[in-house]
Design a protein that fits this description.
It is built from 9 helices and no strands. By secondary structure, the protein is mainly alpha-helical. The radius of gyration is 20 Å and the shape is globular.
Length: 238
C-alpha cells in the first residue's frame, strides 16, 4: 500500500515538473519571438529611408517613443483579455519597439564599430538576463520586496529620463540613469522568474495558463530590452 502511494506521488511529481518545464519554456519562447520581431522590424525600417522618415522623421517620433508605455498601461490586460488578444498586443508592442530602434540599425549599417558595440551589448544583456533569471528560478528567498522597490524606482527613472530628454538634456544624467536601470530591471527579471514558477499549477485551465504566460513574457521582454538599451548606452558613451 505504501509502495503504491509512493509511486503515485513520484509519478505526480514528475508530471508537475514536466508541466512546469513546458510552461517556463513557453514563456521564454514567447519572449524570444518578441525580441526577434523587434530586431527584424528595426532592421527593415532602418534600411528604408521612406519608412524611417514616415515613423521617425518628425513629431510623430514622440508618438512612437511613448507608444510602448501607453500599450503596456492601457492595452495589455491579462485579467480580462483573451490569450489571443494578449498575443496580438505583445507582438504589436515588439513592432513598435522595433520602429523606435530603427535609428540603431541605421547607425550599425553606417558604422561597423558601432555594430560591434551593439553586438557586445546584446551578448552582455543576454548573459546577465540568463544569470538573474536562473537566480530567480533557484533561490528560496522571497523576492517580492525587490519587485516592490524596483517597480517604484523604475517609475522614477522613467520620469527622470523624460525630463532629461525634454528639459535638461544632460549626457551625464543619461549615463547615470542607465547605470541605475540595469540592476533595477535585473531585480524585476529575477522576481518575475520566481513568480511565474510559483504561480504555475498543474490544475490551471489552459486559457488562464496562457494569459499568465503572455503576461510573464511581456515583463521579461521589457526587462531584457531595458537592460540591453542601458548597457548599449553606457558602452557607446565611453
Amino acid at each position: 500500500m505504501q509502495t503504491d502511494r509512493f509511486e503515485a506521488t513520484q509519478t505526480r511529481t514528475r508530471e508537475v515538473d514536466e508541466g512546469l518545464r513546458q510552461h517556463m519554456n513557453s514563456i521564454y519562447a514567447k519572449m524570444s519571438v518578441g525580441v526577434m520581431i523587434t530586431a527584424v522590424v528595426a532592421w527593415v525600417v532602418g534600411s528604408s529611408p521612406t519608412l524611417l522618415n514616415l515613423f521617425l522623421g518628425g513629431p510623430q517620433a514622440y508618438v512612437v517613443m511613448f507608444a510602448p508605455l501607453a500599450i503596456v498601461m492601457f492595452g495589455f490586460r491579462p485579467q480580462s483579455m483573451a490569450s489571443g488578444k494578449l498575443m496580438m498586443v505583445f507582438f504589436a508592442l515588439a513592432c513598435v519597439y522595433g520602429i523606435s530602434f530603427a535609428s540603431i540599425a541605421v547607425a550599425m549599417s553606417s558604422s561597423p564599430a558601432f555594430g560591434i558595440i551593439v553586438a557586445k551589448a546584446f551578448f552582455i544583456a543576454t548573459g546577465m538576463f540568463a544569470g538573474v533569471s536562473a537566480i530567480g528560478y533557484t533561490t528560496k528567498i522571497d523576492l517580492t520586496p525587490i519587485r516592490t522597490f524596483a517597480s517604484m524606482a523604475i517609475w522614477g527613472v522613467i520620469i527622470a529620463g523624460v525630463l532629461n530628454m525634454l528639459v535638461f538634456k544632460s549626457s551625464m544624467m543619461d549615463m547615470g540613469l542607465s547605470m541605475i536601470s540595469i540592476p533595477l530591471f535585473a531585480g524585476i527579471t529575477a522576481w518575475q522568474t520566481q513568480n511565474m514558477k510559483e504561480m504555475y499549477s498543474a490544475n490551471m485551465a489552459p486559457e488562464i495558463a496562457a494569459r499568465y504566460a503572455w503576461a510573464a513574457a511581456l515583463t521579461l521582454y521589457i526587462s531584457f530590452i531595458a537592460m540591453f538599451m542601458s548597457i548599449l548606452n553606457l558602452m557607446s558613451s565611453r
